[in-house]
Amino acid sequence: LTYTYKIRKDAKWVTAEGEEYAPVTAKDFVTGLKHAVDGKSKGLSIVSSSIKGLEAYIKGETSDFSTVGVKALDDQTLEYTLNQPETFWNDKTTSGVLMPVNEEFLTSKGEGFGAPTDANSILYNGPFVLKSVTPKSSIEMAKNDAYWDKENVKIENVKFTFWDGKDQD
């Protein structure tokens, strides 16, 4: 059973400063899943029994990631091969474990990729980019002007404030 997805040609990776980095491609989704496996992501349990060959790769029964049922057929075509039909498969594709990762950027950042308080440690392709993180205080995001559907993003800035239930100083 296969699912085939077309990636938007106008989807772009941008830096935290909003500079265009690269187009988002099907290969980025393959890289993202491999990165999740290599990093032993706890979210893998969501898809490990779904994607053909993924459990065998996770368990070390094979070291060849090309046997896993995720393929970039070309820059804009992504294919998942599942072990069996799942009525909720499309819901699973919104899980963080299946998010795309740009391989060149991942390699350039090394161990610093995805550092929790460094907005420059990841790339962005959604409606917002991370501007700042203050641990146990706040997360601030700004509208991504390179987002393919920016005209329909009506909010310019988002601020998440941490509150642990105690009085704030």
From TrEMBL:
Taxonomic superkingdom: Bacteria
Record's GO cellular component terms: cell envelope
Annotated compartments: Cell envelope
Solute-binding protein family domain: residues covered: 1-163
Main location: other
UniProt KW Transcription regulation keyword: no
Entry keywords, A to Z: ATP-binding, Nucleotide-binding, Signal, Transport
GO molecular function: ATP binding; peptide transmembrane transporter activity
Pfam families from the UniProt entry: SBP_bac_5 (PF00496)
GO biological process, one term: peptide transport
InterPro entries: SBP_5, SBP_5_dom
Keyword field contains ATP-binding: yes
Gene3D superfamilies for this protein: Dipeptide-binding Protein, Domain 1, Periplasmic binding protein-like II
Family, similarity comment: Belongs to the bacterial solute-binding protein 5 family.
The protein's name: Peptide ABC transporter ATP-binding protein
Organism: Streptococcus pneumoniae
